[in-house]
Amino acid sequence: MSATPGTGTESTVLDDLQPLLLGVDHVGIAVPDLDAALAFHTEVLGNRLVHEEVNAEQGVREAMVAVGPEDGEGRTLLQLLAPTGPESTIARFIDRSGPGLQQLAYRVADVEKASQVLRDRGLRLLYDEPRRGTAGSRINFIHPKDAGGVLVELVEPAE
């Protein structure tokens, strides 16, 4: 069954996918220099560094920065992503588009199930199987050509 969104008769994709979408997890920003970006976001804007790591598989040095109250209620996360070398995806993104907004990430209850629901609806995902993301999370991405030009990440947080 298919219909116009918002009419109350949406296809079952909403029934299948909506319970898996828990909220916006973070917004990813590609930066050429992580230390400079961290200084801006923490020292100038007053945000807090909550996690930093190198993800060799993805070719990035990354930091999660929290915006908002320290108790975490309703906090927003920014993921700053710097390339570890010229062949990383982030390096290629910066070469092509310049630094800036790189992706929108949704937190999901089950990345494999969400990926399958999306594939069943004809969307392309970048990985056949979820990969390791920040802080041990499991991730996959919806191809930007299938998401209005936006790279959409699916994040299942580590338990």
How would you summarize what this structure contains?
By secondary structure, the protein is of the alpha+beta class.
Biggest sheet features? 8 strands, mixed
| Assembly state of the chains shown | single chain
Order of secondary-structure elements: HEHEEEHEHEEE
- Class from helix and strand fractions: alpha+beta
- Regions with little confidence, pLDDT below 50 for 5+ residues: 1-10
Q: Roughly what fraction of the amino acids lie in strands?
A: 25-35%
Q: State the CATH architecture.
A: Roll
Mean pLDDT: 89
How many independent structural domains?
A: 1
CATH class: Alpha Beta
CATH superfamily: 2,3-Dihydroxybiphenyl 1,2-Dioxygenase, domain 1
Helix percent reads 10-25%
- The total of helices stands at 4
The tally of beta strands, per DSSP, is 8
Please compute the radius of gyration using only Cα atoms: 17 Å
Widest sheet: strand ordering? 2-3-4-1-5-8-7-6
What is the rounded distance between the termini? 35 Å
CATH topology name, in short, is 2,3-Dihydroxybiphenyl 1,2-Dioxygenase, domain 1
Per the principal axes of the C-alpha atoms, what is the gross shape? globular
Overview of this protein structure:
The chain is an alpha+beta fold. The protein has a single domain (about 20-155), classed as 2,3-Dihydroxybiphenyl 1,2-Dioxygenase, domain 1. Helices cover about 25% and strands about 35% of the residues. The chain has 4 helices and 8 strands; from the N terminus they run αβαβββαβαβββ. The protein has helices spanning about 10-15, 35-45, 90-95, 110-120, and strands spanning about 20-30, 50-55, 60-65, 75-85, 100-110, 130, 140, 150-155. It has an 8-stranded mixed beta sheet with strand order 2-3-4-1-5-8-7-6.
